[in-house]
Amino acid sequence: MTVLEPPATRLARLGWALADSLTIAGRTYSRLRAQPGELAGFLVFPIIMTVLFGYVFGSAITLPGGGDYRSYLMPGIFMQVAALTAVAAATAVSEDMALGLIDRFRAQPIARSAVLVGRSVADLSIHLLSVAMMALCGVVIAGWRPHGSPLETLAGFGLLALFAYAMIWIGTYIGLFVKNGAQADAATFGWLFPLTFLANAFVPLEGLPSWLRPIADWNPMSAVVSAARRLFGNPGSAAASWPLQHPVTSTLCWSVLILAVFVPLAVRRYRTATSR
């Protein structure tokens, strides 16, 4: 039996890992074609949130500084969907573990990093499709418009994508510990969904109790929302803390920090994890 050896040079190893990562990403897309309901759920959820907050609750919410609430709302929904990519990533990884796929991947002559990197890239591309659908929904249904320059608008979506990619790695790490998709959902959604509301995504922070306001101010999700609003030129609220006064810098710092912590942790866990 012939055993394939990794390429000798660093550049060749990088190309090998990239090719393997794309193969793993292709497997994820094939899985979605077999289960289109999963993709449909990803696309429908933002539409529901837009209609619910924009039309059901929006009439009862007044911005302290004035402005259209639906324009204020859209960056918050963009952030929430980006944050919840962690739930989908954790569920998918845990299901692969339960099916024994991780052990099979490790037995194959592929780059060790390819499985997690390929899946994370596939998850990010699916998220970008969801964001495109959500932006279209915001324009058509909610009347949302970005008022920044084209470059600022692209930068806003780029920051949201970076934050989503960081959250995917948190979900990947959690998914390598739990036994099945139900546990993965509970281990991520249970704390993550409430945390998206403990931010400036849907209502201004001025009305929060004094003991709760600092938590919301330093919530990374508040920085992401403020950065998106600033780059899109949408209405915002008063910034009383450093992260909200410098939201773009804060978002970059939080995203890079999350990646710096959870990518090595996930890779290390993947090397030792066994399928259940």
Automatic annotation (TrEMBL):
It is found in: Cell membrane; Membrane. InterPro entries: ABC2_TM, ABC2_TM_bact-type, ABC_2_transport, Nod_factor_ABC_transporter. This is Transport permease protein. Pfam families: ABC2_membrane. The chain crosses the membrane at residues 39-57, 77-103, 124-144, 156-178, 190-212, 248-267. GO terms for biological process: response to antibiotic. Keywords: Antibiotic resistance, Cell membrane, Membrane, Transmembrane, Transmembrane helix, Transport. The lineage of its organism: Bacteria, Bacillati, Actinomycetota, Actinomycetes, Streptosporangiales. GO terms for molecular function: ABC-type transporter activity. Belongs to the ABC-2 integral membrane protein family. It is a multi-pass membrane protein. PROSITE patterns: ABC_TM2. One of its GO terms (cellular component) is ATP-binding cassette (ABC) transporter complex.
